[in-house]
Amino acid sequence: MKEALRLALKGEGCTSPNPMVGAVCVLGGRIVGRGYHKKSGSPHAEIEAFLDAARKGISLAGATLYVTLEPCCHTEKLTPPCTDAIVASGVSDVVVGTIDPNPKVSGKGVAKLRKSGIAVRTGVLERECVEINEFFNKHVVSGLPFVILKSASTIDGKIASGTGDSKWIGSVKQRKMAHRLRKKVDGVIVGINTVRADDPGLDVRLVGGNVRQPVPVIMDSKLRISPKAKIFSTHPRSIIATTESASPIKAKRLSRLGAEILRLGSDSTGRVSAADLLRELGAMGMCGVLVEGGSRVGACFLREGLIDKVVFFYSPRIIGGDGVSMIGDLGKESIKEAINIKNIKVRRFGDEMMIEGYI
């Protein structure tokens, strides 16, 4: 199963809205077939493992299949049910990492295999198999994307100086780690103030491998974004979330640049409703999104309880009280009201560190 997990992660950032899945076939104590799901619409991991064995001329009669996620059994997708292929393959045993939370599967795949006479064992390295698909697991049940709040700050929690200067707080290595986060998600969300101040590309540049660029999502209640903003030349598609009060003339002009204009409800401050935005992105099939800034946007998502995970990078610098705080006003009047972070992991790289945890 560890090998199946390793294979599954090769599809990271490429399989959405599908989960990452890895599979291996074992016969006579040795692995005879390996496979993983490469991208949506391509063969599932089990099929890839079967094809790998077939290329070697190996029959799978009596073999054991190890797969990180319960095999699918429904026809409402681009590929045939994997349970049918498993039964036809001749394998006698199937070992499953975790049950698929998709209501269309959720135990039905295992039941179908057992009914066909195949011995099935579940829950092997279950925690690890669940963790690799936290985006899919949330989206397939709720219809909402998994939301990561990312921020890079000085050690005293500042993302810019009082003049707005922020390049660069962190090292190249830190920025590479941030780009790996972008590589994993379907969309990167920032506010219009970040776009106007930094003109970010919001693309994946600093890491190699198979990269599926995330869609930039700009929260801009009044459509103040410039048609010359870098995102329009960097991405063939972008999403601008605005409100009903925004100029239809400006919206039409931005549409010609490849922008999809979402007119959404407003929050109590008149800005774009973060909850409405997530519902729209989820309906588009986005399973995971990264909220990158600025401090007001991060605070907006936190206030509404919309963040699932935080990833904070800290550099060994101090700016002081006149700097821009990494999180804007949350309206917390006591320590008891503070947002608690759980399951914290800390990673040091040189003099910098990354802290991640769940809300």
Shape: elongated
Radius of gyration: 23 Å
Give the full name of the CATH homologous superfamily of the largest domain: Dihydrofolate Reductase, subunit A
Structural class by SSE content = alpha/beta
Q: Considering DSSP H and I runs of 4 or more, what fraction of the residues is helical? A: 25-40%
**Number of helical regions:** 12
Strand content: 25-35%
Strand element count: 16
CATH topology of the largest domain: Dihydrofolate Reductase, subunit A
Main beta sheet, described? 9 strands, mixed
The run of helices and strands is HEEHEHEHEHHEEHEHEHEHEHEHEEEE
Through-space gap between termini: 29 Å
Strand order of the largest sheet: 11-10-9-8-12-6-13-16-15
- The CATH class designation of the largest domain is Alpha Beta
Number of spatially distinct domains: 2
Mean pLDDT over the full residue set: 93
Low-pLDDT residue intervals, each spanning 5 or more residues:
none
In CATH, the architecture of the largest domain is: 3-Layer(aba) Sandwich
Would you kindly provide a written description of the structure presented here, covering whatever features stand out?
By secondary structure, the protein is an alpha/beta fold. Helices cover 28% and strands 26% of the residues. It folds into 2 domains: 137 residues, Cytidine Deaminase, domain 2, CATH 3.40.140.10; 216 residues, 3-Layer(aba) Sandwich (Dihydrofolate Reductase, subunit A). It is built from 12 helices and 16 strands. The strands form 3 sheets. The protein has a 9-stranded mixed sheet with strand order 11-10-9-8-12-6-13-16-15, with helices on both faces. The radius of gyration is 23 Å and the shape is elongated. It starts with a helix and ends with a strand.
